[in-house]
Amino acid sequence: MIRIEDYEPIVGQATVEELFLLAQHLQGKVVQNINSTAVGGGVAEILSRMIPLLKQLGVEAKWDVIKGDEKFFVTTKKFHNGLHGVPVEIGDEEYEHFLEVNRENTEELVRGDIVFVHDPQPVALIEKRDEVGKNWVWRCHIDFSNPDPAIWRFLSQFIRRYDAAVFSAPAFAQKIPVPQILIAPSIDPLSDKNKEMPEETINSVFARFGIDRSRPVVTQISRFDYLKDPLGVIKAYKLAKARVDMQLVLAGGGATDDPEGPMIMERVKEEADKDRDIFVLFLPPASDMEINALQRGSTIILQKSLKEGFGLTVAEALWKAKPTIAGAVGGIPLQITHKHSGILTHSIEGTAHWIKQLVSAPEYAARLGANGKEHIRNNFLITRHIRDYLLLFISLFHDGDVVSL
Amino acid sequence: MSDFHFYTKLDQTVLLGIKARNVRELLEGIKEVSDSSIYYHTHRFLLQHHYLSPEPPNDFAYWVSYALGHAALGEQLWSVDIVEFPSIAELRQKFVEILEGHVASTERHIDCPQDQEFHFMASKTFVFSTHYVVHDLTEFVGILGKISINSLYYHMFDAKLRLKHGENDFSRWFRSLGKTELADKSRQLDPYSYTLEGLRRYIIVLVRKYDSH
Questions:
Q1: What is the topology classification, in CATH, of domain A199-379?
Q2: What ipTM describes this predicted complex?
Q3: Which of A303, B15, B81, B133 could make a disulfide contact with A173, Cβ separation 3.0–4.6 Å?
Q4: Domain boundaries, chain A
Q5: Closest CB from B15, B113, B148 relative to A167
């Protein structure tokens, strides 16, 4: 089991000490996390890592999962798609069933001084608020920059009854009469995807895929999805390669619910077949070790997204001190300050230009990577995420801009 | 002789749901938001990017330069010397003057690209005591090397806004010990000209020098 003290060599003793000091102010308070799945997905992953650490800090953290039938989850999947801008139709009966499932769950679940509800699925548990009378926080983990108006109208009637709402990026803030808190997601430096690994392991992964580490390697790790722009990445690579020798690695999951996905995958494969220096790797879900090695062994990491929720692959790359070139979209500008801790681009040509520059100027590239790593250390590791959650819970009991604890 | 008790502070970031697409909207926002928002946008860079460079960038300058691509106005905002202003109200007024001057001098107001709007945020600050209490300068140096940068920030930066005459918590304590020259030197220090780790090292060197006197 990972101990909170294991993070001291990474973030410093003083940072961990501050977590213990903060946690003292939550003594006697039960924090009840509620979401809709115990395994799979980003929310379950972060809760399974965070709950044990909160307990070690002395916080009585609990985690419950709501139960729902297939019809319920079909509706909440529609919410998810609609909130991401995909056109969906949801009938009155589906909304009513959604509420019914929330009401059924309310009987069994709700207890705790702070009820911390994650994502839209359990949002209507707040209907119980008047009976329970405790502190309620809604945590939105998804891109909320342009929600479907009908779904937003439905959800907002519940969200506005909470004591606070938490979003992952500034652009997700809404006009609601509830305090809105910014808490960015995080990566865990001790997870398989991010922990240190021996050079031999990196070499063996590269050898397995036939990638030559003695030549520059430019890598993008992401789903084969239109919004991650893999074809734009190939174009940028070709423009840059006219001047500088390099290989390109496109690695990620093959499954996608993007209707244009299969066409894009076909095109990527076609392009790769024409160029022996392009490696297209379809990685199965349990490939954290391979992703870690590919990121660590690459010369430059790309994340040329056209749209992005938060883009934690950028944090993963920067944590490995990799010079990173990424699209200036979603949460990426929070992670990269242009020309300080990485490069932000807006076009294929701009991306090609910076690939060329960074391959040709390794000292400058290394400085960007080193700064990027420090930025992630200070702002996007799980310890900062825990700190923000502790502050969030404490803030429910204190008004004002400055609070003396 | 009094003891020095180290405190620390942590900030929660509050989203205000107010955004700007151009200089005119930025100006309106700066006039409208609370002091804690002006504080956030002029100080958070120091804590989040403290390893990068000693220059004191503020979010307004960064956004005008990079999202609007307005180098000249960006430079004007960039050069606002935060340490010069004893209060957030006066600091706000300085930004208002610069932006009003710009708005009056031009008819053109370019909008930023989509998704690059300026989002106004604010800080909610939590102050709490650490376990560290020191009784003399030798102990002070030992602990200063250990405390978090948040604690250093609280005693050097926040103190300047809390205390008058440019005093910070360290200089005030040094003065109470009768170390007037050390107190004056610490008070005159422009903390915005250092990275936080650089500032920590500088104060340690300074105090060691006077501790041996």
A1: Rossmann fold (3.40.50)
A2: 0.88
A3: B15
A4: 4-186+381-395, 199-379
A5: B15
